[in-house]
């Protein structure tokens, strides 16, 4: 597995543990629809939360969360609509980003951005 893939997988594992510690229920991980993949789908009480996890071992180009493009957001929004259709979900949803930066000792520094983006109307 390539280094960035290893960091990505490790970041997703840390993000899932973090959410569970907060009381979220993890419903799915790495859920795919078409070209899109949603890293974590969780429930926060009655809110369905779609989480994009961005992990890096450096911040030369800013916080990892800043690398979520408009295109990536659209993919996640399309995939989440399909997920909700299949699940029969009709209540509140939220789109979060979890940013993780690993230091040289692989210790994670995590930032959780709730309501990071929204579907356009």
Could you explain how this protein is built, in words?
The chain is an alpha+beta fold and 121 residues long. It has one domain: Trna Endonuclease, Chain: A, domain 1. 31% of the residues lie in helices and 36% in strands. It has helices at 3-21, 70-87; strands at 25-33, 36-44, 47-56, 93-102, 108-113. Helix 2 links the parallel strand 3 and strand 4 (93-102). The longest helix has 19 residues, at 3-21. The radius of gyration is 14 Å and the shape is globular. The termini are far apart. The model has no long low-confidence stretch (mean pLDDT 89).
List the helices and strands and how they pair.
Layout (H helix, E strand, L loop, with lengths): L2 H19 L3 E9 L2 E9 L2 E10 L13 H18 L5 E10 L5 E6 L8
Strand residue content? 35-45%
Unreliable residue runs? none
Per CATH, the class reads Alpha Beta
Instruction: List SSEs in N-to-C order.
Output: HEEEHEE
* CATH fold field value: Trna Endonuclease, Chain: A, domain 1
Main sheet attributes: strand count, strand direction, barrel closure: 5 strands, mixed
Class from helix and strand fractions: alpha+beta
DSSP, total strands: 5
Helix content: 25-40%
Strand order of the largest sheet: 1-2-3-4-5
CATH architecture: 3-Layer(aba) Sandwich
Mean pLDDT: 89
- Global outline: globular
Radius of gyration: 14 Å
Total individual domains? 1
Question: How many H/I helical runs?
Answer: 2
> In whole angstroms, how far apart are the ends?
40 Å
């Amino acid at each position: 597995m390539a280094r960035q893939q290893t960091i990505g997988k490790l970041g997703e594992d840390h993000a899932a543990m973090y959410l569970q510690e907060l009381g979220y229920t993890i419903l799915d991980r790495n859920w795919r629809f078409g070209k899109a993949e949603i890293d974590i789908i969780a429930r926060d009480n009655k809110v369905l939360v779609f989480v994009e996890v961005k992990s890096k071992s450096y911040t030369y180009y800013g916080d990892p969360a800043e690398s979520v493009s408009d295109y990536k957001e659209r993919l996640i929004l399309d995939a989440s609509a399909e997920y909700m259709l299949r699940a029969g979900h009709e209540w509140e949803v939220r789109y979060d980003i979890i940013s993780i930066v690993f230091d040289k000792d692989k210790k994670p520094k995590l930032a959780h951005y709730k309501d990071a983006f929204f579907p356009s109307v």
